[in-house]
């Protein structure tokens, strides 16, 4: 990644009132979730990005 440049590759949506979450990959246009409930949402938000990377169909350069 070039210095001063940011690439957004996904969006994590969390609804604290409805206690639900989903992740949308902007590279492959896939949605993970939604999940509901306090404990499932907590686990999902901590793991979804790394889990999705293992199954994303679009090659990703310089991913951590």
Sum this structure up briefly.
The protein has about 60 residues and is α+β, with helices and mostly antiparallel strands. It has one domain.
Structure commentary:
The chain has 1 helix and 3 strands; from the N terminus they run βββα. The chain has 64 residues and is an alpha+beta fold. The chain has one domain. Strands 1-2-3 form a 3-stranded antiparallel β-sheet, covered by helices on one side. β2 and β3 form a beta hairpin. The termini are close together. The model has no long low-confidence stretch (mean pLDDT 89).
Overall 3D form: globular
- Protein structure class: alpha+beta
Going across the major beta sheet, what is the strand order?
A: 1-2-3
Distance between the ends = 11 Å
Overall pLDDT confidence: 89
The main pleated sheet reads as: 3 strands, antiparallel
Whole-number tally of structural domains: 1
Low-confidence residue ranges: none
Helix content percent band: 25-40%
CA-atom Rg in angstroms: 13 Å
- Tally of individual helices: 1
- State the order of secondary-structure elements, H for helix, E for strand: EEEH
Strand content: 25-35%
Number of strands: 3
Keywords:
64 residues, three-stranded antiparallel beta sheet
List the helices and strands and how they pair.
Blueprint: E1 10-15, E2 20-25, E3 31-36, H1 38-55
Antiparallel strand pairs: 1-2, 2-3
